[in-house]
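Deviation from plan, reported transparently: pyridoxal-5'-phosphate complex.
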Amino acid sequence: MIDIRSDTVTRPTNAMRQAMHDAEVGDDVYKDDPTVIRLEAMCADLLGHEAALFMPTGTQSNLVALLTHCQRGDEYIVGGEAHTYKYEGGGAAALGGIQPQTVPFGDNGELSFNDVSAVIKADDVHFAKSRLLCLENSQHGRVQSLEYMQSAQDFCDKHNLLLHLDGARMANASVALGASLEDVAKPFDTVSLCLSKGLGAPIGSVLVGDKSFIDEALRWRKVTGGGMRQVGILAAAGMLALTDGFARLHEDHENAQTLAALLADVSGLSVRENWTQTNMVWLDFDNLSSDLEPGKASQGAVDHGTALPAFAKERGVLMSVGRNAGRLVMHRDVSRDDVTTVAGIIKDYFASL
Ligand SMILES: *Cc1c(COP(=O)(O)O)cnc(C)c1O
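Because the crystal trials were delayed, the predicted structure below was used instead.
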């Protein structure tokens, strides 16, 4: 099967499996797993921050960042479609008593500083304390520029906010920008990076920040589920993700461009052309959800969220899209030929309607 549901589906390479097999390990709770120590030092160095902490997932890494930055009754400001707000089970509120304050993402994935300013709360007993701004890069595949991220830092300095980056796919952003990971990570107090997405590790994320922050984050990692033991086995895969995985990410971006071009004139869908900046292709389908509302004439309306994946699956492609829109995600296990196959299947599907 060609699996374009997400870039999380990559299988570890042979080199990664070998590195896992050969990894020297210790007990990371005693801080004596040498491979974890190497991975954390490597991440701190690559992202230009003092210290790093290995985490099982990006969700836990973001949650630990929020719990470390914010107290109960504090607030963080975040995009309304942001992962930390919408896709992490409300963890910051559920576990930390941290109130999210959302603002809408613009079409380029930026939060407008006017919008953010408007929701920052005065120091008044009526209000939660505005503590942190959280950005995402890439945001739904869209790259945030170095200038924008620098202006976010200036804005936060001025307004006395901390600044966290959910950099789950910041490696893709870095490749698209032609900038180092350090350049992308620099304006932020803390950054979370997933090793398990396009970089191709089977599991793992890292949180970076200054040393005192990471010391405190270690406590919150414990509170949110504890430490891991001979986890150098996973850190070994993570190091290869950062070297070999990083070195080939541009291929996924090229494949996304190719796929977007192949789909450009398919009738029944439109490609969000200005969103094809990294490894994702976003599609909008012509049926509107209002076609499908009960009581409305629904002639010709198709729930593409069900029909297209079923059509594709019969032909050897796994995809996950919604009723009206969806994303196709390129990664290491999708070849240039697979891209042609996928485009052909999508064309056939729309031709069959
Ligand atoms: C995937 C993702 C995460 C969380 O990572 P998991 O490892 O799946 O928990 C966080 N933020 C963004 C933007 C993501 O895409």
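Residues 284 and 325 are 4 Å apart (CA to CA). We consider this an acceptable substitute for the interim report.
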